[in-house]
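Title: Comparing notes on inverse folding

I've been comparing how different people in this forum approach sequence design from structure. To keep things fair, I'm posting one structure and asking everyone to reply with a full sequence. Here's the target:
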């Protein structure tokens, strides 16, 4: 043994302190395990520090600013003034307050938190390189929760000044005049919408045929119309090929004027640099790790979150953490959700849970559906939102297998839709739930009535079968 390599020991080692990692550490500590949590950047991971939280804070500010200046329809006339420094302070304060809460939870649970980069040097040991040198940790069980990072494009090297990634777009030093967003997925659409509402001239470039290509076209089309109303220029079936002095160059010869270019084309798992060869694990070509239903990579090694298959969502990582800790504690546990709800915080919001009609057909599941227009929903009308809808999909037995919404506040309905599908609720059961009036949640009952051929607040057109 080399001098200086005398290891410390821990029962459970968690690498990565994002939503999956810190929850795993808390659950393992609650189970009586001695836990060490290693994080190379900041506790809370990308989600709390540079992703979910500051981006939603930016969206909240943008919505307030936009509403203040566009309230004439409601009898409100104002000329709002944007304080960019105060906006940035709010974003950072939101991050600090939430991460401080996570630190307090970890401290109360007596989780040993180490700052540094962990790398396996043997099947049961890691070296943690930090500001004060290298420490070695011997563990009984290890959970990998190292998350992901923004994908890079060779043609658009991120310099942190003119070309930025999704993180850089959140923390620009001043409001730009123009921005080109490369990538029309949920990250690009959320950022583009927020910046447009803050008075920035925005263009979005997406190489697929439409924005939000991973979602049902009916959902993305509503958001696309709103982007047009906000003055966002959308360039689909186009690719960015480089930068010039004038702006972003596209493959069709068009040059988009842009003070900043935001690269938002996806994320890459942080599985490299972990020394996984020392534990006999090889990532797939896409960087993801193959795990069992209990999130197990090897006998005493687990992986959760963006390192594994499935959507890169914080709530998925958190749910997987619960399973991994239960498994390492000797319980029989598997990660087998019927659905994982997904939300896009666009304008209007999108919430999609379970199967669409097309997905049901591809899976060989006979289905029918009904799409209730939010133009017939009182709360949506009061908010000035009339372009969205709620679609419910049921199988032959009338069991709810999908709910897809686009409209105001629909992110808050994803949990109810997921519960209904997980519990195999029938359309009759979900429709029988009394939803408060006036709320957008009433659209769930309305869509259910429609599926059953008993539409109430719209013409009785019947279900799509």
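Reply #1:
Here's my take.
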């Amino acid at each position: 043994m080399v001098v200086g390599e005398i290891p410390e020991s821990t029962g459970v080692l968690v690498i990565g302190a994002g939503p999956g990692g810190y929850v795993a550490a808390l659950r393992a500590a609650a189970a009586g395990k001695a836990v060490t949590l290693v994080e190379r950047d900041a506790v809370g991971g990308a989600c709390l520090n540079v992703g979910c939280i500051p981006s939603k804070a930016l969206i909240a500010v943008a919505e307030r600013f936009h509403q203040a200046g566009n309230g004439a329809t409601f009898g409100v006339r104002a000329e709002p003034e944007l304080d960019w420094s105060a906006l940035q302070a709010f974003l950072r304060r939101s991050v600090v307050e939430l991460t401080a809460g996570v630190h307090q939870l970890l401290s109360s649970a007596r989780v040993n938190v180490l700052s540094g980069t962990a790398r396996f040097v043997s099947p049961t040991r890691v070296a943690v390189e930090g500001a004060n040198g290298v420490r070695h940790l011997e563990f009984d069980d290890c959970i990998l929760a190292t998350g992901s990072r923004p994908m890079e494009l060779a043609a658009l090297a991120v310099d942190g000044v003119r070309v930025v990634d999704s993180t850089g777009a959140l923390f620009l030093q001043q409001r730009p005049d123009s921005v080109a967003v490369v990538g029309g997925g949920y990250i690009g659409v959320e950022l583009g919408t927020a910046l447009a509402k803050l008075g920035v001239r925005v263009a979005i470039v997406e190489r697929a045929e439409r924005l939000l290509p991973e979602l049902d076209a009916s959902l993305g089309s509503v958001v696309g119309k709103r982007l047009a109303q906000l003055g966002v220029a959308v360039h689909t079936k186009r690719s960015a090929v480089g930068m010039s002095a004038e702006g972003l160059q596209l493959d069709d010869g068009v040059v988009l004027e842009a003070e900043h270019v935001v690269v938002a084309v996806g994320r890459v798992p942080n599985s490299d640099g972990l020394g996984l060869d020392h534990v006999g694990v090889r990532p797939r070509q896409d960087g993801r790790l193959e795990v069992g239903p209990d999130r197990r990579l090897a006998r005493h090694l687990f992986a959760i979150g963006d390192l594994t298959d499935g959507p890169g969502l914080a709530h998925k990582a958190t749910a997987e953490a619960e399973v991994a800790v239960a498994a390492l504690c000797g319980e029989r546990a598997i990660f087998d959700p019927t659905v994982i709800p997904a939300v896009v915080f666009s304008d209007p919001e999108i919430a999609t849970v379970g199967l669409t009609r097309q997905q049901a057909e591809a899976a060989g599941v006979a289905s029918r559906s009904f799409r209730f227009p939010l133009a017939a929903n009182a709360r949506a009308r009061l908010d000035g939102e009339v372009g969205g809808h709620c679609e419910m999909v049921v199988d032959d037995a009338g069991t709810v297998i999908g709910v897809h919404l686009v409209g105001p506040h629909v992110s808050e309905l994803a949990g109810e839709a997921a519960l209904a599908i997980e519990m195999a609720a029938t359309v009759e059961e979900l429709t029988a739930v009394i939803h408060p009036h006036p709320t957008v949640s009433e659209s769930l009952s309305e869509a259910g009535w429609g599926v059953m051929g008993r539409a109430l607040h719209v013409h009785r057109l019947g279900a799509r079968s």
